Amino acid sequence: MHIEVLGALTVHENGISITPTAPKPRQVLALLALHADQVVSTAALTEELWGENPPRSARTTLQTYVLQLRDLIGEALARGADAGTVTAKDVLVTLPGGYRLDTRGGHLDFREFDRRAGAGYRAMDAEDYSGAAKRLREALSLWTGGALADVQAGAQLALEVRRLEEARLCALDQRIEADLRLGRHRELLSELTVLVNQYRMHESLHGQFMIALHRSGRRGEALSVYQRLHTTLVQELGLEPSPALVRLHRSILTAHPETATGVAAPAEVQARRPAPGVTRAPARGSHLTARAS
Questions:
Q1: Which residues of the chain fall short of a pLDDT of 70?
Q2: How do 98-101 and 92-95 pair as beta strands?
Q3: C-beta of residue 291 within 8 angstroms of C-beta of residue 233
Q4: Among 177, 227, 223, 173, which Cα is nearest to 198's?
């Protein structure tokens, strides 16, 4: 089975799509896919589909959606080399209290993302910044859009999407950090221009943008980035910028480029990353505490 969730939902069996077009069955498949090879409880699926007030027919309706998915799986299996040896019930398994989508060792893009990002983080810890930038780029290349961009998300999926997006932002932050360490500040300017407008209260990205501008001889623009962020944080959250960002601003203001590197020790970076195989830590920079918008 081939599963992609880092963009539109795509699930293939034997190279044939088993992704339904109807919104509710898509939600069921998406939640099963995100927990592939693990049991997803009936309660979790019910909450995803109907929230806290499911209809009396919820269990029967859920079973109908499962049958629809099995029909798609069965059609795909019938065209494969193992036709007749593996059934749809072997792939979408009914278990006490829930269901499990058995991928049989298939490809899952979000787990591959975890693997590649983890390799990038280890390279950062080893101060192999070129290797880190390469591996983190490879991880980020798996994303083709927002996670599950074409799936209607209930409470369960919304939580999973946030975790995935936070893991993506963490990897992006670290990839930019590696590029800054490699002196690629000018190449980063256009990308960071877009990112700070997309994440208007993300302090780490703003700090990286300030550093890139400062190193490119654009000190005044770096200071303006700080002022815009300061205004946004105060007006929208009632917060002042973090002490780390204040120190970075001061170092640029006093024209001390040696103190405007903004990088932290590898141990500090490690403490802010997702644990191996877990896409749930909020994205943070290696030199500033990030407040994501």
A1: 81-83, 256-293
A2: antiparallel
A3: yes
A4: 173
The reported pTM is 0.84
Burial class (CB in 10 A: 0-12, 13-18, 19+), 98: middle
> Which of 180, 174, 107 has its CA nearest to residue 137?
174
> Cα–Cα distance between 214 and 179 in angstroms, integer?
15
Q: Do 121 and 78 share a structural domain?
A: no
Q: Tell me whether residue 84 is in a domain.
A: yes
Q: Which domain holds residue 168?
A: 108-270
- Give the pLDDT confidence score for residue 79 in this predicted structure: 85
Instruction: Check: CB of residue 209 under 8 Å from CB of residue 198.
Output: no
Q: Are residues 141 and 244 in the same domain?
A: yes
pLDDT score of 80: 74
DSSP character string of 197-216:
HHSTT-HHHHHHHHHHHHHT
The pLDDT of residue 292 is 31
Q: Which amino acid is at 166?
A: E
